[in-house]
């Protein structure tokens, strides 16, 4: 849901090597950093419904910054530096891609920088695009209006919906937040395909 050009997404191996690999054949991870703005469609999905005290709510999404750690391990110092960069450049979300899982003490920095969002992924978890795997059904985030219509249509409270955890691989892939609802479309031998809905917890 972010604005990226076709050239940025589809880089040939030869071009990638020319831009990001040094003479010894090692990838220069610090050169891989980039940022992107959310599309208007994504902003709409992340804008809460108007309320009496807040008739024009701001979208809960903004510019994202992605950085690849050149260090073999990640500690407090690395995540503090990344948090400082997000704060200085006023990025809404930061994704830190590391070669190894960060220490438990380093992870304590993440809640301390709220409302700025920081997510950490291990490189090995990103080698396969799970959204394109044949066993993973299509997940689509519902906008607040669609969520409201769904609950009204079935006369439900959101707590009555089946749940999906925020640490679910597809929830992390989509960057889902607590309270959102995701539509999951599965193939069915009898119905062709059917939709189910999950509430993010």
From TrEMBL:
Q: What is its main location?
A: nucleus
Q: Which residue positions does the secretion signal occupy?
A: none
The terms describing its cellular component in GO are: RNA polymerase I complex; RNA polymerase II, core complex; RNA polymerase III complex
Q: Can you give the residue ranges of the RNA polymerase Rpb5 N-terminal domain?
A: 1-84
Q: Where is the composition biased (Pro residues)?
A: 49-58
Q: Which Pfam families match?
A: RNA_pol_Rpb5_C, RNA_pol_Rpb5_N
Q: Which PANTHER family match?
A: DNA-DIRECTED RNA POLYMERASES I, II, AND III SUBUNIT RPABC1
Q: Under which name does UniProt file this protein? A: DNA-directed RNA polymerases I, II, and III subunit RPABC1
Q: Which organism is it from?
A: Friedmanniomyces simplex
């Amino acid at each position: 849901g972010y604005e990226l050009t076709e050239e940025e997404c589809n880089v040939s191996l030869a071009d990638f090597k020319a831009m990001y690999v040094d003479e010894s054949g090692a990838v220069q991870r610090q050169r891989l950093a980039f940022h992107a703005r959310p599309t208007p469609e994504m902003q709409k999905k992340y804008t809460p419904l108007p309320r009496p005290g807040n008739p024009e709510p701001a979208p809960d999404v903004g510019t994202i910054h992605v950085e690849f750690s050149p260090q073999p391990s990640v500690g407090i110092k690395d995540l503090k530096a990344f948090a400082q960069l997000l704060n200085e450049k006023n990025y809404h979300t930061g994704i830190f891609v590391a070669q190894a899982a960060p220490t438990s003490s380093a992870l304590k920095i993440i809640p301390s920088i709220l409302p700025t969002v920081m997510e950490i992924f291990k490189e090995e978890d990103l080698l396969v695009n799970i959204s394109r795997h044949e066993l993973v059904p299509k997940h689509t985030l519902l906008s607040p209006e669609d969520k409201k219509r769904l609950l009204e249509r079935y006369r439900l409270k959101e707590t009555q919906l089946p749940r999906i955890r925020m640490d679910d691989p597809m929830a992390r892939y989509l960057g889902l937040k607590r309270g959102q609802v995701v539509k999951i479309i599965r193939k069915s031998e009898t119905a062709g395909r059917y939709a189910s809905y999950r509430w993010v917890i």
